[in-house]
Design brief:
The complex is a heterodimer of chains A (287) and B (461). Chain A is of the alpha/beta class and 287 residues long. Chain A is built from twelve helices and ten strands. Helix content of chain A is 38%, strand content 21%. In chain A, the strands form two sheets. A six-stranded mixed beta sheet of chain A has the order 6-7-8-3-9-10, with helices on both faces. Chain A has a four-stranded antiparallel beta sheet with strand order 2-1-4-5, with helices on one face. The longest helix of chain A is centred in the middle third of the chain and has 22 residues. Chain B is built from 17 helices and four strands. In chain B, a hairpin with a 2-residue loop joins strand 1 and strand 2. In chain B, the strands form two sheets. Chain B has a two-stranded antiparallel sheet. Helices cover 63% and strands 2% of the residues of chain B. Chain B folds into two domains: 323 residues; 59 residues, no CATH class. The chains are: A alpha/beta (287), B mainly alpha (461). The structure holds adenosine-5'-triphosphate (ATP) and magnesium ion. The site of magnesium ion has 4 residues of chain A, from helix 3. Chain A: Belongs to the ABC transporter superfamily.
Amino acid sequence: MSDAANPPVDDVANEGNDDALGAFASGVETTEQFPLQVEGLRKSFGGITAVDGASFEVEAGTLTGLIGPNGAGKSTTFNLITGMLKPDSGTVTFNGEDITGLEPHEIANRGMVRTFQIARELSDMTVLENMMLAPKQQRGEKLWRSVAPVVRDDVREQEEELLERVWEVLDFFDIDHIAHEYAGNLSGGQRKLLEMARALLTDPDMLLLDEPFAGVNPTLEKKLLTHIHELREQGYTFLLVEHDMDLIMNNCEHVIVLHQGKVLTEGTPDDIRSNEDVIEAYLGGNV
Amino acid sequence: MSVRDDIAARIPGGDAGLIVLILASAYLLYILAGIGLGYDLRGQLNSIATLTFYIGIFAMLSLALNLHWGYTGLFNIGIVGFMAVGVYVMALVSKPVFVAGGAAQVGGLGLPLWVGIIAGMLAAAILGLVVALPALRLRADYLAIVTIAMSEIVRFSFLSGNLQEFNLFGTKVGFGGGSGLILDFVPPLEALFRSVGLWGVYLGFVEAFQAIVPRNPKPVVDGLIYGALLLGFVAVYFWLLKRTGESPFGRVLKAIREDEDVANALGKNTDGFKIKSFMLGCALMGLAGILWLMPQGAVTPNFFRPRVTFFVWIALIIGGAGSNTGSVLGGAVFAAVLYQGPRYFQNLVGTVFPNLDSPSGFGQAISPLISQFDPVPLLLYTVDSIRQLQLVVMGLVLIWLMHNRPEGLLGHRKETASVISLDRPKSMTAADGGTDGEVRTDGGVTEDDSTAAVEGGASDE
Ligand SMILES: Nc1ncnc2c1ncn2[C@@H]1O[C@H](COP(=O)(O)OP(=O)(O)OP(=O)(O)O)[C@@H](O)[C@H]1O
Ligand SMILES: [Mg+2]
């Protein structure tokens, strides 16, 4: 469990945005150079082949961009990787383990967590409840521990620790002022933030972010990107779907271009910028 | 803020105040009705005991259903099946061993009552598991179909001649088929008081009660004490389910109700949580069934018709799914007004107007209205058949509720799913937006002081 491993978070006096780091981070155990390897992934829905033999790898400690036109199969790829959909064929390897066909919760517990393109807040739960849900393997998730008199004190203790982390993250994401609000009452951008904050609270090794900045204001977007870079330097790995080309080009070390369910090309932002195929398929020739 | 908030807000003590108020008015109404009916003290006490009995039973059932539906979003419409299995297994285990020539057609295993109760609850939970395993992996509506089918299968199984009697551990046991089972074990109160060595004390108390009810006070005292016992069970259910809901476990259940995929994507084994929640609720339904029928002396399969399931649903909807307090309230209101109420109303009308003779058929009731615009015969006929019309009345109440108060009396009170209050810990000061400027998310709702917002308070939109 991560909270035990957390370095004590700096206290009240030091307020800026750095203190939230301690709230998510517990170090990454990855030793693989490529924690995520996708091989020949294929998925069709009726007549549409959404993902058509995509293969790529994501290097540890990078912020890798996954781009492509609408309907290229990016979200479907995320669904296949995280177990929300079962691939027709192909394999997904995470930290050296074949995770193809595992249940989403099994994959999440191995340290790979995703956010959804259309934010899926738990509307009838408050922002705080949404956030408190996320941390993995909470003691009180065992029914008897939550009910039985003496052991419930252990649960309470852990809840208190979690609550501090949660409030730090809320502060960081600037959603502390809506902490008691029902998530269903949030604005579109706030939902996106909640979703990302919630995913980070599971303390993953790798995060798959599906258009996390859509609808988030530019200042906060910058702050979040800074934070992502900080986490990346600690060894966390990010795979980011995003349509904003400038954002991708300025922030990613590596970019994968998906087109009609296949990997069209991949490389550094500069490679991508100068690639004729990409320009034709995606950038519309005006870069 | 909705109108509903105001109702509870205007009553001192909030939810607790509302519960006390509603219970007090229910009892008062029944006492007044008793006076109207000319009950003596004995009659009044019996009427109070019966009211308490049904309040207890429906509060328990509605609490158990709230765990399924209100917390986890599991659409169980086979409640009565779990009750039936609980009662029948309890009877099988605790009925005395068969003796030829005795009153009972079949015997049981002759084990103590508490063993039977635990066995009945376990059986209900296991039946829940068997039903849940295939159905929970499918979408919500499949569980509904499976559970209601199950409850009818259970009823027909107990009706069937094949299970009427069979041999178990060398003794003749069985479920009695259509003619039912005589519950010829030690009466529950006697078993309870004997087991704690207080039976003599209890009998002494009954003796003393003769001062109030001179003739044969035991049935009156039994009824009152059993009712009180049931309220004790309601308290235990409430405590158990409150702790279940206000915990990380309950948080996951709530998340499953909201969006199962999200809970799963955050690493929660949702199937496991659903099964646990379902089994716990089923065991509690089994126990409620046992407590309902244990003092009745006999049980027949046709008691367990699906209508009982819908009674429980109505109770939960009245109180408000999602709230334990609401469930208790809904159970009480249902028992007092919809379940017991019509009978009292009919008796009252009969007492106040003793010489009314109502038409004997619908034709005679309706024809004066059509021919002479005289509605009285129809009214009389309606009052006369109010018990048969009970289901119609319940349907109307449901429709009214759905239109005007879909969240029930207290449904808006969503109890926070955590062990502790989720306010900012005192050790942390409120952030003022950080050092890098006042970054507020788009569409920011309020100013900084909103951290003081009341929990559960919806924003004014
Ligand atoms: N559940 C589904 N059923 C049927 N078709 C689907 C389903 N999910 C995706 N598709 C189809 O698969 C294709 C790829 O969709 P996907 O959502 O992966 O695209 P995307 O790259 O994420 O696009 P965008 O940038 O617009 O989010 C689309 O043609 C879509 O219609
Ligand atoms: Mg997409």
